[in-house]
Amino acid sequence: MQKILLFILLSFTATILNAQSKKEQIETITSTLDSLIKDAASKQQYFNDKIDSLKKTETNQRQNFIYKLDSLNKIISKNQKEHELQIDNARNKINELKTQIISLNSINESMTLELKTKDQQIDSLSNKIANLSDVLDSLSNPIIINENDWQLIESALKWIEKDHSKIIQWFNKNLYPASNSIYTHSCYSYILDAVDFNSGYPGSIEEEEFISKWSSMFDLNYASFSHPFENGNCGWASFKFKNIEFLGNFNYGDWYKLTILGGCGENDYSETLVRVVKIIEENGSFKIANFISLRDN
Q1: Which of 235, 234, 221, 128 is nearest to 178 (CA)?
Q2: Which residues contact 186 (CB under 8 A, 6 or more apart)?
Q3: What's the pLDDT at 240?
Q4: Which of 18-32, 44-58, 171-185, 192-206 has the lowest mean pLDDT?
Q5: C-alpha dist (Å) from residue 136 to 40, 69, 152, 158
Q6: Which residues make Cβ contacts (< 8 Å) with residue 125, sequence separation at least 6?
Q7: Which residues of 103-117 are buried (b: 16+ CB within 10 A; e: fewer)?
Q8: Given a cut of 80, is residue 11 above it in pLDDT?
Q9: Are 229 and 172 in contact (CB under 8 A)?
Q10: d(CA 15, CA 150)
Q11: Cβ–Cβ under 8 Å, residues 221 and 292
Q12: Which residue did the predictor score with more confidence, 296 or 175?
């Protein structure tokens, strides 16, 4: 009986002790839980404060950005207006310049027409002056129509200052071998008749006709040639100028003295010819209108 009571007492004591231990555990857990809750609440409050601060910062930045954006838009709008105004001013200037150009073109056309009229008047006056000068020259020195006498031609030559480089180049390029294009029509016709007359072939031009046709225009004392700028009948194989000298102007042509060396063989310059040649300009080209022999050997 005592053992049973002791067992019951021990059991009751153990139960009481066990109950006390669980209560303490519950209190400990409850205390820990309260501490965790407080810590979580504190952290939650920290995070809330942080979020509020970030929100305020973001709001301030957004407001600042909007303000700057508005300021930029105002500046852009102002600059755009100023730019548009500058463009309008430039367009107005361009239109004004176009108007001035049109006016200047009109003035220029008027002045060009007036200058053209003046030029025509000057040309007319120049022609009249030239004609008067020719008349005066003819009165003081009558023009000798015949060009078959060297002494008369030489006495009537007038010196004129001019550039002779082009005609000298022309002589060197065209005189030998010569083509009919370097002579005037009358001069080339004379050359053909002279060659024909001197050949003596049946049907050639007769002496009487030859003299009647050409004696007043050319020196027939020098009319025995097969080439106007060669002598003999061999046909020169060598030809060069020793000298080209301008003598003067007469009968509306320039007269040159040509000293020519040549011969029948290669590099043969044993023959010396001296020709006085009259050059005119015809249709923009130089032409030989007459020639006289001063030396034939």
Answers
A1: 235
A2: 217, 289
A3: 94
A4: 18-32
A5: 134, 94, 20, 14
A6: none
A7: eeeeeeeeeeeeeee
A8: no
A9: no
A10: 175
A11: no
A12: 175
